[in-house]
């Protein structure tokens, strides 16, 4: 198995801009973004806090450890934790605060 293949990963923000980074299959999307000098929000880096949430709209991602901060329905909807998400194909991921806001249900409604 080759753990070093690089997948083209498009990060897209709701405001309309995009960045393409190369993410190795053995590194998290968050680490790949940092290597590309792109700052994404994060907290725990262990899959527990959901600060780094993105949503996969195309491609395949696997979590390197259990994504404790996400519920099954979040996973089914394509949400991933970028601190532990490793690409398994070229992919496109929505990032930014809007994605995180969608994830956290509003307790006032
Ligand atoms: S930084 Fe906490 S879940 Fe990713």
UniProtKB/TrEMBL annotation:
Q: Does the keyword Phosphoprotein apply?
A: no
Q: Which domain of life is it from?
A: Archaea
Listed transmembrane segments? none
Q: Which residues form the 2Fe-2S ferredoxin-type domain?
A: 7-99
> InterPro entries given for it?
2Fe-2S_ferredoxin-like_sf, 2Fe-2S_ferredoxin-type, 2Fe2S_fd_BS, Beta-grasp_dom_sf
Cofactor field: [2Fe-2S] cluster
Q: Which UniProt keywords apply?
A: 2Fe-2S, Electron transport, Iron, Iron-sulfur, Metal-binding, Transport
Record GO terms (molecular function): 2 iron, 2 sulfur cluster binding; metal ion binding
Q: Which family does it belong to?
A: Belongs to the 2Fe2S plant-type ferredoxin family.
Q: What is this protein called?
A: Ferredoxin
Organism taxonomic ancestry: Archaea, Methanobacteriati, Methanobacteriota, Stenosarchaea group, Halobacteria
